[in-house]
Amino acid sequence: MVGNSMNEAEFSLYALTDIFMNERRNPHFVYEEGNQCWLPERLVQPVNKPDGDKWRAPPAVARPSNYSWDIRPDCVYLLSLRAFRLGFRSKVREHVSVLQNRVVCPYLTLEFKKDSDKNISRARHQVAIAACIALYNRWELKRSRIAEWTDDHRSQLGHYCLTFMSSTWDVWHVTPKTFTEWSGCRMRRVYSGNCTIRNDVVQLVNWINEIHYWGLTVHSPGCKDDIYARTCADGDADDADVSMLRIDG
């Protein structure tokens, strides 16, 4: 593909078809009871515009920058609502953003660009914006229900990104700069590779698997616990169906 100078759309299509696959889900599961299990869901170029009464802008930590490009990421992985009991799925949106009535709490963002210095910078900015929005929402959910931050709480807060420039790729990890107060994010590159090198492809697959593992074993239970705690904190809330995959003793 590199040798044939294929465009950005061809690279993106190949990656989303053969690497970042999306398992076919029952489109009616939101309205049916079923096995409560953690499942990843993929959205392509998601748009999430909150209602005006639900929008709370994060505190400004720097002077705003002007940009003229679309900030939508090419692809995002989130958690399926299937992990919640049927009677509670409609209530989840009271605490977190629910996209397409079926997914919540993003943990991985992808962006594909052509191989140029301008596009490399733009790709990094796009995933940084998407990660910052997701991470601030995650931080706010956690902050609103705890009295003191612990190492376990901090380990749950993060967001992963993958940027692709032609055949080269980078893995990024985004974390809050501070925890007691919001002061922005820190974006750190943790690995780089090239899809024309066999061992780098193996490493890419390993990283993808590890990120999904983190998303389904660390990120998802943390989100569950925080939503559960937020619901139970409301004395008038109906918590009969709040239990999900596991129940805290």
Can you give keywords for this protein?
alpha+beta; globular; 7 strands; 249 residues; disordered C terminus; 7-stranded mixed sheet
Chain-wise SSE layout:
Elements: H1 8-18, E1 40-44, E2 75-80, E3 98-99, E4 103-113, H2 117-143, H3 151-156, E5 159-165, E6 168-176, E7 185-194, H4 198-233
Parallel strand pairs: 4-5
Antiparallel strand pairs: 1-2, 2-4, 3-4, 5-6, 6-7
Summarize the structure.
It is built from four helices and seven strands. It is of the alpha+beta class and 249 residues long.
Structural write-up:
The protein has four helices and seven strands. By secondary structure, the protein is of the alpha+beta class. It has one domain. Strands 1, 2, 3, 4, 5, 6 and 7 form a seven-stranded mixed beta sheet that branches. A hairpin with an 8-residue loop joins β6 and β7 (185-194). The radius of gyration is 19 Å and the shape is globular.
Beta-strand percentage range: 15-25%
How many extended strands? 7
Radius of gyration over all CA atoms, rounded: 19 Å
User: What is the structural class?
Assistant: alpha+beta
Q: What is the overall shape?
A: globular
Low-pLDDT residue intervals, each spanning 5 or more residues: 244-249
Give the biggest beta sheet.
7 strands, mixed
Please bin the fraction of helical residues: 25-40%
**Count of spatially separate domains:** 1
The ordered string of helix (H) and strand (E) elements is: HEEEEHHEEEH
**Total helix count?**
4
| N-to-C CA distance | 53 Å
Arithmetic mean pLDDT = 82
